[in-house]
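USER: Study each token:
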Amino acid sequence: MNLPNLLTTARMVLVPFFALLYVSEWEGRYIATATLFALAAFTDWLDGFIARRLDQTTPFGAFLDPVADKIIVATALVLIVGHYSDIWLTLPASVIVGREIVISALREWMAEVNLRNRVAVSWLGKVK
């Protein structure tokens, strides 16, 4: 396993710890959870940077990276919505998670018809 794929895998391994930390009774849990989320975001940038710079892109990494992103974002949104139970948080969170599901389904369908390269992630999509 190359370094970019290892970083992506580590990001996925962080998710249960991220969730457990958020629901813990520890006083500093929110700052620690936000820090862990920021670390995950940094590894998302870093794995892509290293993969492109060192020519270590792989089909496995191309598949796993967006999956890891969706898992951590969906987990964070579910935790926040579950904590605050506010319709003004629930609605946008539902739209975001729904969009991620639709985009994933579209990418898989495009792969089935051999057009995956037509739905490559743009710079704008990365900063959403």
The chain has a mean pLDDT of 88. Residues 4 and 47 are 4 Å apart (CA to CA).
